[in-house]
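Re: Re: ligand-bound prediction request (bumping)

Still looking for help on this. To restate: I need the protein modeled with 8GP bound, output as structure tokens. Inputs repeated here so nobody has to scroll up.
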Amino acid sequence: EDKGSVDDTTKLWEILSEYQPRTVEAIQKQIVTHIEYTLARSRFTIDHHSAYMATAYSVRDRLLEYFNDTQQYFNEVFPKRVYYLSIEYLLGRTLANALTSLNISGVYRESLRELGFVLEDLYNQEQDAALGNGGLGRLAACYLDSAAALDLPLWGYGLRYNYGMFTQSIIEEKQSEFPDFWLSRGFPWEIERLDVVYAVNMYGFVRKATPAELEDGYKGKFVWEPDMEVLAVAYDLPIPGYKTNTTLNLRLWQSKPSHDFDLMSFNRGNYTAAIALRQECENITSVLYPDDSTPQGRELRLKQQYFFASASLQDIVRRYRKSGRSLLEFGQYNAIQINDTHPAVAIPELMRILLDEEGLPWGEAWAVCVQTFAYTNHTVLPEALETWPVPVMEKLLPRIMQIIFDINCTFLSCVRKRFPGDESRVERVSIIAEGHTQLVRMAHLGIVGSHAVNAVARLHGEIIQDRLFRDFYEMFPKRFTYVTNGVTPRRWLLECNPYLSHVITDTLGSEDWTKDIEQLCRLKDHATSRKLQQQWLMAKRLAKERLILFLKTTQLKDDPNPPTLDPNAMFVVHIKRIHEYKRQLMNILQVLLRYLRLKDYAELVTGTESIPHVVPRVIIFAGKAAPAYTRAKEIIQLIVSAARLINNDPVTRNSLVVFFVADYNVSKAEILIPAADISEHISTAGMEASGTSNMKFALNGANIIGTYDGANIEIAEEVGKEKLFMFGANAKEVEDVRAAYARGEAETIPTDLDRVISFIESGALLSKEERARGITGAGAYRAICDEMRSGTDYWLVAHDFQSYIKAQAQADRAFANPKAWTENSINLTGGMAHFSSDRSVKEYADRIWKVKPCPVPGQTGSIEEE
Ligand code: 8GP
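Reply:
Sorry for the wait, this slipped through. Here it is.
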């Protein structure tokens, strides 16, 4: 390695180990320096965005001080390390988070104030990093935060997509998708590592190694002769630990062509072919989950996954090898967590490296793999149980396919030994599904190649053991476990809800709860205190006012006749991906019933300003539908058109307001969650693996209307189920009901539901434009109405409807008593310690990864300053 030409590095070290001062004056100078030298702006061209960028660069400088120390310390101590491989990271914004972690928000606020900027205004200049889709990606982000706070030697690996999750707009009451080019205004937090580059092989063929090659030092038996080579370039994102010196790394790979497009061919006039190759390489990290409805799209996804797995594994192995330790001990020093099946191809990739590049015998290489890997399943829905056609894999990754066949062969011979004559079992568990086209089952590969397979909540654990992976559970009972998800209390309470955080700190006498979450339990001792209740109500009110302001300046900006938004109303929030199993449909149908009932009631009490004895509600939906998911898009349209009808009805508008907030993302969640009185987690039982927003809401003192599903069950146990509004069929009952439906035993739909469906069928929700086009009746909602009327709807909306209405009515009654409501709310927050991601990550570290914290010793300019 080139160590540079300096002989005496004393001076260099001296300066390097100095931390930049944290006085207001010093920070101001750093910010201004970035304005002038990094951004090349003059004092006449400083706008909010450049002030944000310069501030971000100056904060990044400080992050790098910790980052460098941390990485150096890990290299010296060489602890067992964890690598978290995830195709998604929903990070959200960074500035507030970094300032909170480093404990320097105050001094930055002051520095900026004197420069003429309000820190909070700059927060809004930052675009969300939405390199993910939903729960799985946000969980990965929470786990990074906790791992850093707990001083665990962990790195995340992911992909640096050029386009994040699509931007959602509502046009003519429908979802439209636009590309989310999140990098367009620059991303100041990352470090481009043009020197950390790996070549990833694709296509071509495999042949036996020749005697000459073996003599020459080639260690493997086979040689992969690729037809294409793609380069993976590293981009590092420092992940600061809250109030600790540890700053971890999230390394994201970007694809790049390995030879600049063929100049010769270009000069000969093959312009398109030359550029096409370049494009093909760059496409690999251009979007998250490329459309897989075409064979090319499916191949691109597999390419993306292998690119990700190979670059990460090469990097991990190289780091380990530098220590000079034996590869046989690799699993004692490295744990790799596979977040769902997307990175599962990492298992045969590690085998490839160990066999072909390191020359390990099969048995030893396999033992290393199983010791190293662990796999998390995040859903029982088919999207997490990926399969790849063997011909596609064979063409793209010939050596990997060969290794998978070998893994399967060895595995199946174990199965046959354990269960002689049980060929149907062999067929069920095989990594290769037989059929017209053979398929590689990535979940099976994940289970066979890992020492631990975990679910994300207790019920989900039972379901994967008893149903989804039952045969595997019978073979490897010890491998299966669950770790109930958690959320980081830093982003999801301390940062997003400064009002409530102040009240909590004030009540508990210190801010220790932000790190030692068990402290929150002590809130329960004060739940009946009048003083606390008043402060608690005030905090909720402030959060609601912040949300109202947000709605007024966005959603309602151009509305000539906006509905009045009363902070005393009950705010009900339903935010998550739009999916049939999450049953936003059931909610909007319930809202329409409420509307119809209000109209009935208003007829009886005409002449009054607002309808007496009714708890006014503001109901907010948000979430994105997958672009190809027609039914989910119809549900959005139904919500938006219902909102239009309801919000414009002068009779009900003081008692009921409905919003669909477009383009849901992490930073919108940070405004919505603190303002909620109630949140909806109403999935068909057995379908929501865990849910994590339920935890975020309860942490912010919002109640839950929920089914006996995922983590709702454990939350109910923790806080007492009488404190929540639980309803509906449980997972076992759902199975029984579905079995009855399958036998042809349809249910009669409840009268209330029938009323709502008839209302939709009457054409009440049609827009002016739709009417003008001659559309009548249910219009776009025909299929939804028919399904509801069938009496056999798969998601049990009709079946659960009545008990859902009852739960809603209970909530109305409870909200009418503010004292009891607030006491309950305090107890909810007080009961959430168990759902901190600090607890979850500790469980992973102790039970699955077997790693210990590796706290980085303090330096000057420490975190303690504020
Ligand atoms: C989600 C689950 O739906 C949710 O219940 C759970 O809380 C979360 O993962 C974290 O564990 N699953 C996904 O986001 C998911 O399966 N995404 C698909 C793209 C695979």
